[in-house]
Amino acid sequence: MLRGMPYTERERRLLAPYFSTLEPREHADVYLVRNLPPEVAATLNGVYSRSPHSMRDNFLQRLRKGMEESGRSLDELQPEEPRRDWLADVLADKSGTFLKTYAIDHGHNSLREGSVLHLAVENVSQLVTRFIQRERRCSFEESSTRYISFSSEGHWRDPDVAAAGGEVAAAYEEVLRTTFALYQESIELLVAHLERKRPMRPDEKEGPYRRALRAEAFDTARYLLTPAIHTKWGMVADARTLGDVITELLSHPLAEFRLVGTRMQEQCQTLLPTLLRHAKPNEFLQAQHAQLPRLARQVQGLLRAAPAGGPCVRLLAHDPNLDDALLAGLLYESSSLPAADLLRRVQELPRDARESLFTQALAARGPRDPLPFGLEGAQPFDFEILVDFGAYRDIGRHRKGVQLQQALTTEHGHLTPPLMVEAGLGDRYRACLERAAALRERVAARFPLAAGYVTPFAFLQRARLIFDPRQVGYFVELRSGPEGHFAYRQIALEMHEHVRRVAPLYARFVRAHEDGVLLGRMRAEQGAEQRRLERMRAAGDA
User: Fold this and answer.
1) Which of 45, 212, 453, 454 could cross-link with 114 by S-S, CB 3.0 to 4.6 Å?
2) Which helix (H) or strand (E) holds 405?
3) Closest CA relative to residue 91, chosen from 19, 33, 38, 40
4) What is the DSSP string of 167-211?
5) Chain-wide mean pLDDT for the chain?
6) Highest mean pLDDT among 103-112, 142-151, 163-172, 274-283
7) Residue 307 reports pLDDT greater than 70
8) Three-state DSSP class for 514?
9) How far is CA 145 from CA 38, 48, 111, 148, 312, in A?
């Protein structure tokens, strides 16, 4: 049963560092749990389902029992002692025993989700980054190629390619050297071109103006980067997800992936010694890396796709009655009818009545309001996109849906940003990429996976995006914005055109931004600067 009495002063001092409120409430007793070692936090979460007591009470009980088992009394414990030290001494072994019994021996994986870690991962390639960031259960924040110049970053040299030496290693190095040199040179040339094309206006501030120009230049120059370029990112994940990610990395044929997996495991085990015991190379995953490419080659034979020439979107599958299904999904939780009956009632309505219901349901939606949750109640869209790897890095952040990306290749041709041509760099850009493609094939002949490191961002790749209708609406509204990159803007607008064709009623309520713009980031940067100044003035007044 939950505690009905107030805590003693001593108990309050013991609890205060770990729980945000200490006064039990009769209803909606909500409080933060903080400052606990991750495995202790996971244990407290785990005993919730096996105890009638509150988390604060369970903490005190387990602390008292742990002290007694070590031959000491809770009264001897001084709250002023370093918190982590005595918690580790008193609770860690008991937590480990509990977690081993239930999370490992009994397979209660949800207990692993009670331990959450925040990792910083730095100086790793874009290739391993994209592999890890497929994971939908994590949160990531990565260095932006739009706001940060990568001119000072290093590159990953695959050790197997380096050990092979000769023509293969020389080809790998030449791609990195030539593409990166043009990337560095082109940034300032692109900025200078933009200054001439779109001078700063009297009503604009120089800081936001410069940021908008550099963002546009970075967006264009990044096509010359390769996945070998180093990046950095933060990752927040629970122990269950970390274990899965580490296992996948340790099972990968590329050396960098295994290295990153080992480093992640080393760091995480300092706080999760019990919960990561199961993270190790997996024979099935290792076999898949060898088997699936072989099977795909058998099916594909010698066929090669013709270069497509630019981003495109195909709709592979969708709900043929999508508008009706979405309207029924919107109404389902407010109805008492079975889903099939509700859908039939909706389908029997005249078109103008269905349109009126949709309009009324979404009439109050503001500019920043998400589309309603009920719009997930229909079959997903299955899109196949052909897009450059640079733009896919942004598309890949939409992890709510399912994404399947093919291996990096130069087979489908590359994209040439219009700004590169306008600035007089088009010929040098194309020649650089054509040379890189030829060199990349030399690497791929012996090291097909490592060749991904020297496949510049400009080259087109295929991926499948399986999004529910609500996620499609969110993607289109966000990625078609005027401040967005031109390549993924095109993908978003093509997706919206498919939605308009198969679900015209729903498409009316998806706010696609279809107007072309120059320096679409400018308005956003100037607005952000104005809001920053207003906040500073408000803070000064306060």
Assistant:
1) 45
2) strand 402-405
3) 40
4) HHHHHHHHHHHHHHHHHHHHHHHHHHHHHHHSPPPTTS-HHHHHH
5) 85
6) 163-172
7) no
8) coil
9) 33, 44, 37, 5, 23
The amino acid at residue 214 is R
Q: What angle do CA 444, 446, 452 make, to 5 degrees?
A: 30
Give the span between the Cα atoms of 542 and 534, in whole angstroms: 12
H or E stretch including 393? helix 389-395
Report the C-alpha gap between 88 and 86 in whole angstroms. Answer: 5
SS3 304: coil
| Token pair of 466 as six digits | 């399986």
Q: What is the SS3 assignment for 231?
A: strand
Residue keyed to tokens 């005993």: 47
Give Cβ neighbours of residue 452 (< 8 Å, ≥ 6 apart).
127, 227, 407, 408
| Exposure of 133 in the CB half-sphere (CA atoms within 13 A) | 24
Distance CA(157)–CA(160), nearest Å, equals: 9
For the ranges 61-75, 363-377, 401-415, 441-455, the lowest mean pLDDT is seen at 61-75
Dihedral angle over CA of 365, 371, 372, 374, nearest 10: 150
3-state secondary structure of 82: coil
> Cβ of 104: how many Cβ atoms within 10 Å?
16
Instruction: Give the mean model confidence (pLDDT) for residues 60-84.
Output: 71
